[in-house]
């Protein structure tokens, strides 16, 4: 199993367990997240790039992976991804560099998985 499959399998399995607990607050939080990234006045592609930059600045590797995959699905090109990486590193500072490395690694895995 490759890196992309492993991440998605784990994420799905754990989301099912979490949602099965039937906690109203958690369900509403998940729903709010889904609706936030749906098309609206701002298109999905732009929202996912914003989500990626914010996730990098907040240093959440799982969120970075998630938004990288959504960016790929939304048609974000590699040059655009690297601009988002640049913005995140300028805003977040050099502490974001380790997350940049892992983001580049996952982006490469996504490109391979899509071949």
From TrEMBL:
UniProt cross-references to InterPro entries, sorted A to Z: AhpD-like (IPR029032), AhpD_core (IPR004675), CMD-like (IPR003779)
SUPFAM superfamilies xref list: AhpD-like
Record Gene3D superfamilies: AhpD-like
Domain Carboxymuconolactone decarboxylase-like: 27-105
Domain of life: Bacteria
Matching NCBIfam families: ahpD_dom
Protein name: Carboxymuconolactone decarboxylase family protein
């Amino acid at each position: 199993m490759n890196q992309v499959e492993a991440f998605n399998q784990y994420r799905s399995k754990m989301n099912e367990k979490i949602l099965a607990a039937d906690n109203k607050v958690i369900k509403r939080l998940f729903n709010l997240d889904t609706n936030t990234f749906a098309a609206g006045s701002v298109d999905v592609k732009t929202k996912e790039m914003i989500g990626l930059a914010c996730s990098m600045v907040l240093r959440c590797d799982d969120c970075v992976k998630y938004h990288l995959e959504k960016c790929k699905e939304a048609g974000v090109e590699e040059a655009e991804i690297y601009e988002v990486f640049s913005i995140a590193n300028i805003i977040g500072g050099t502490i974001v560099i380790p997350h940049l490395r892992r983001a580049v690694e996952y982006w490469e895995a996504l490109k391979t998985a899509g071949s």
